[in-house]
Amino acid sequence: MLLQALAFYLFAFVTIAAGAMVVASRNPVYSVLFLILAFFNAAALFLLIGAEFVAMILVIVYVGAVAVLFLFVVMMLDIKVAELREGFLKYAPIGSLIGIVLLAEILLALGVFGGGSPTIATLNQAGAHVGSVENTRAIGRVLYTQYFFLFQSAGVVLLVAMIGAIVLTLRRRPGVRRQRVAEQLYRPKDQAIAVVKVPTRGGVS
Amino acid sequence: MPIGLESWTLARPEIFLAAVTALLLLYGVLRGETSAAFVSVATTVALLVTAVLIFTPYREGTAFSSLFIVDRLTATMKVLMLIGAAITIPMSRAYFERVKVWRFEYPIVVSLAALGMMLMISANDLMSLYVGLELQSLSLYVIAAFQRDSIRSTEAGIKYFVLGSVASGMLLFGASLIYGFCGGTAFVQISRALLEGKAGEIGVIVGLVFVVAGLAFKIAAVPFHMWTPDVYEGSPTPVTAFFAVAPKIAALSLTISVLMGPFKPLFPQWQQIIVVVSVLSMALGAFAALRQPNIKRLMAYSSIGNVGYILLGVAAGSEKGIQSVVFYLGIYLVMTLGSFAVILLMKRRDMMVEQVNDLAGLGRTHPMLAFAMMVFMFSLAGIPPLAGFWAKLYVFMAAIEAKLFWPAVLGVLASVVASYYYLRIVKVMYFDEPAEALDASAFGVNRAIAFVAAVIVAAFSLAPQPLSLVAAAAAKGLFP
């Protein structure tokens, strides 16, 4: 139990610290790297409460796809941090207001201002009764049976996304050399090799 | 619950369409750009075969752990939507060839959009509703921006995408509230929870409002219509024709099955919302287009107005009301496709033109085309004995039977105002000084569609029974 508490405070501390560094660091590439660190620690926090599926998804989707995408965008665009910070003071009041509202909501949900705070027992009652089955297995049991139809339809949605991306962006440019393995292999020797007489100090043109 | 064979038989039209689309996609990728003509014809045929499959043999019930439902109403709506989608594909060929984006992906994406609409129409759970809606919307965003070298088309795509995402967000927010308060996402669970006394919960009502707002965006009803004129104007014209028909049918069917299904116990609450949205849509559709010079924008406002009339039928909440909605949608399909077929023929010196004034003197230069357009405009204005008159009449009758007197009166007034801009087009065609004549075109697909649609609209009064029987059968499904 003590070990679990220690692990929780470690991961929670690193998550918050990394989150602060995302905002504070001067180089946007560092920001994204800190974001990835924050994601990893959040995944560890999920593992601690026994939500191993969400933890895996967080690593695969957010670290594997979203953060890498961010990294690409940040590296490709020439972002000037100084320019981004120009509006900092102007937006500070509204930003802190939103922060305060969110904090108040969290406190409200935790029952600080009176009213019962939700316990694990009541949450379990409201949620699905998975019992002793771990959540990956629980999802696996319904995904290909009860929700098979939705699973397949979601696949078609992804197909449309793929076709759409290709249709709207792929351009066939002329003059691009494409690899054609068969043609390259069947090329006769006299086309591929030329014997050139090289004069001394002349080089090959 | 295991998935029995029954599920697969019920969803056989959807499975067929998905499989054929995947095969055609493979064919197109392997054959390259030259396959566009074949793929488009094959997709049209596949959509029509899907429509036939729905009724041969017709079966109803729920499938896939009741995520999916087939009944008379959904089957009829699917057939209407598939006909609309199938006809717009051949209509698009000439246009896309001219702007040099005639590519095989267009029919593929349209067919995937149709698949999404079928899933939407058949949704029996908030989750399948959302997945179907996203499948449809994502395909529509892509085809709005399909003419990617045109800045207007790209703008239309981005605008539609951003605003559509906001609408999806609202819908999801509402759905999460409903899930939280009712303890389930299945329509059956929601309706059971509401009947057991959850109907008074404020959370459910807020959730319902958000869901209705999301759906109103998808059918472009006021006050969620802002995107419509820009997207209709910017998108390539054949895509606009598709937008004006198929997604409206699908989203309206979804609206009906959500409101009349799980939320039936909240009828007094949602009736107010729908009446307000309907009256506002009718008014905006009538007033905003009065001085509109661009015919695509004009058709956008006209579609907003039409959605207003259709929603009046939904607001009635009776069997008559739903019947009038199906009836209206059938006639709207024919009128709109016909009008767009004429708009697609508007080109001068091989350039597409889309101003109302470009039609000047059409009555003398292209008498047949002008006559067809006149039939559509009179019908949209609701002048007897054309089809559009009967559509409006049924909706107003249903509204009056449901004691919605004021909305019905406002609707009639709005339709009087709207007839100004429909008749203005007729006046420009017949009485204005002829502008330079539009290009004469060979007898093509669009001409054929325009004439067939004109004949159907004009001669509708001779045989209105088939459509009204279909509508009556569809509505009966909801009121056992």
TrEMBL record, chain A:
Indicate the family of this protein. Belongs to the complex I subunit 6 family.
How is the protein disposed in the membrane?
Answer: Multi-pass membrane protein
Listed under GO cellular component are: plasma membrane
Q: What is its main location?
A: membrane
Among Pfam families, the record links this protein to: Oxidored_q3 (PF00499)
Record keywords, A-Z? Cell membrane, Membrane, NAD, Quinone, Transmembrane, Transmembrane helix
The keyword NAD is assigned to this record: yes
Its Enzyme Commission number(s) read: 7.1.1.-
One GO MF annotation is:
quinone binding
Q: What does this protein do?
A: NDH-1 shuttles electrons from NADH, via FMN and iron-sulfur (Fe-S) centers, to quinones in the respiratory chain. Couples the redox reaction to proton translocation (for every two electrons transferred, four hydrogen ions are translocated across the cytoplasmic membrane), and thus conserves the redox energy in a proton gradient.
Q: Which domain of life is it from?
A: Bacteria
The family database entries (InterPro entries) matched by this protein are listed as: NADH_UbQ/plastoQ_OxRdtase_su6, Nuo/plastoQ_OxRdtase_6_NuoJ
Q: What class of enzyme is it?
A: translocase
Record-annotated membrane-spanning stretches:
6-24, 29-49, 55-79, 91-113, 147-170
Q: What is this protein called?
A: NADH-quinone oxidoreductase subunit J
The reaction(s) this protein catalyses: a quinone + NADH + 5 H(+)(in) = a quinol + NAD(+) + 4 H(+)(out)
Where does it localize? Cell membrane
Automatic annotation (TrEMBL), chain B:
Pfam family name, one: Proton_antipo_M
Q: Which reaction does it catalyse?
A: a quinone + NADH + 5 H(+)(in) = a quinol + NAD(+) + 4 H(+)(out)
UniProt main location, coarse: membrane
GO molecular function annotation: NADH dehydrogenase (quinone) (non-electrogenic) activity; NADH dehydrogenase (ubiquinone) activity; quinone binding
GO process terms (BP): ATP synthesis coupled electron transport
EC number of the protein: 7.1.1.-
Per the record, membrane topology reads:
Multi-pass membrane protein
Location comes to: Cell membrane; Endomembrane system; Membrane
**Top EC group:** translocase
Q: How does it assemble?
A: NDH-1 is composed of 14 different subunits. Subunits NuoA, H, J, K, L, M, N constitute the membrane sector of the complex.
Annotated membrane-spanning segments are 15-30, 37-55, 75-92, 104-121, 158-182, 202-227, 239-260, 272-291, 298-316, 322-346, 367-384, 404-423, 444-463
Q: Which InterPro entries match?
A: NADH-Q_OxRdtase_suN/2, ND/Mrp_TM
Instruction: List the gene name.
Output: nuoN
**Family to which this protein belongs:** Belongs to the complex I subunit 2 family.
Biological role: NDH-1 shuttles electrons from NADH, via FMN and iron-sulfur (Fe-S) centers, to quinones in the respiratory chain. The immediate electron acceptor for the enzyme in this species is believed to be ubiquinone. Couples the redox reaction to proton translocation (for every two electrons transferred, four hydrogen ions are translocated across the cytoplasmic membrane), and thus conserves the redox energy in a proton gradient.
Protein name from the UniProt record: NADH-quinone oxidoreductase subunit N
Question: In its keyword annotation, does this UniProt entry include Oxidoreductase?
Answer: no
